[in-house]
Amino acid sequence: MSDKTPMFSVSQYTTYPLTFEQDVELYQKLGVEGIEVCEEKLSSDPVEAREQLKILAESGLKVTSVQPRVLSLFPHNMDTESDPRTPEDRMKRYRQTIDLFSECFPDQNIALVTGGGKAPDFNFRLAHKIAREFYPPLADYAAQRGVRLMFEPLSPILMNAFTFITTLDEAVKLVEDVGRENFGLAVDVWHIWRERGVAERLAQLGEMIFGVHVCDWRARHAFMKPSRPFSITAPGS
Predict the structure, then answer these.
(1) pTM of the full predicted structure?
(2) Under 8 Å between Cβ of 163 and 120
(3) Which of 97, 109, 4, 90 lies closest to 50, judged by CA?
């Protein structure tokens, strides 16, 4: 993280019903300095997407991280029919996202989120093997373009729906096995707050953590229903 990178930014998933342009306008009015871009909010037309990112660049908001349109190695339950299915095609699409943001925001050390997706045919051993084959060259590709990657472990309730890695230890082991300085962790409080001794463990991980997502957990809410950030602390905290 550079000295100019804000310590706090707002993800566009937080204001999901708004358009990309409305997000930029709102964040400016609120005095927010940083933004996590959700590529899903950009136009699918490459020329129009670059025009939208030009608006963002001229707004004064700092891009701290990116949620790619296709961010996981394997498919997940929110993929569309048009999304690529194989790891090869998905990582090819991910490289396009790397190219887009490295060209529109050069030399800014932006971090892109990545995740596991569903293990193919519930074969977790194969999923881990493939992850260790695909992520090193992807990280090298990103490094050549001044971009970082951060892997996000998800809550166990999302196993077999969105991910095959649901613990902090598994994610750390993946990062260690990939062995690239620009491949680290994205830690989301919503996903990892249950883990034993999590505060102490996070402190030990230090610079392996490239980004942190902060929100609350409301057990009474329906699955995946968004809640107001910072309104309730997690049980036991």
Answers:
(1) 0.88
(2) no
(3) 97
